[in-house]
Design brief:
Layout (H helix, E strand, L loop, with lengths): L1 E4 H30 L8 H25 L1 E4 L14 E6 L4 E8 L12 E4 L3 H6 L7 E6 L2 E10 L1
Parallel strand pairs: 1-2, 4-5
Antiparallel strand pairs: 3-4, 3-7, 6-7
């Protein structure tokens, strides 16, 4: 079972509605208009519209299926004594002395941006390395671009 915040599930449901109620009807109209132009074997507009329809249908199917396999977790109910799912973690990267706020979320939420913070999946090298750590702890993360060292400053 994978976890997601309520806000993340709301965003997925909003995307499903947008695809089903806006994008799919628009592309179906494009298919109909292109089909009316005649010979489909050499109709680039028809082929492009059908490809877009397949893409939208695939994304819709994926999001609907995926949302049934997600467990919504309310981060407010999780203690903030150590890094856990849903936490807002203020860290300092020791090499650059840069301070960053990470929001530790499920893998299905990372593509929905938030202002003033970076979303990090609990399955990512950064997210999985921080689970269970406390303020003051240093975390060494072995990432594809090399080792990074963070100090956990605060957990919200």
């Amino acid at each position: 079972m994978d976890y997601i915040t309520k806000e993340g599930m709301d965003l997925i449901q909003k995307r499903i509605r947008h695809l089903a109620e806006v994008e799919r009807p628009q592309v179906i109209k494009r298919v109909a208009v292109a089909r009316a132009q005649g010979d489909l074997s050499e109709n680039a507009e028809y082929k492009a519209a059908k490809e877009m329809q397949r893409h939208i249908d695939k994304e819709l199917d994926h999001l609907k299926t995926r949302s049934t396999h997600l467990k919504v977790i309310d981060p407010k109910t999780i203690p903030k004594d150590s890094v856990r799912f849903g936490a807002l973690i203020t860290v300092k990267e020791l090499d650059s002395n840069r301070t960053v706020i990470y929001h530790l979320v499920g893998i299905d939420e990372v593509n929905f941006p938030e202002e003033h913070m970076e979303k990090v999946s609990i399955a990512s090298p950064i997210g999985s390395s921080m689970i269970g750590k406390k303020p003051g702890d240093k975390v060494i993360i072995k990432a594809p671009m090399g080792e990074r060292i963070f100090e956990i400053l605060e957990i919200k």
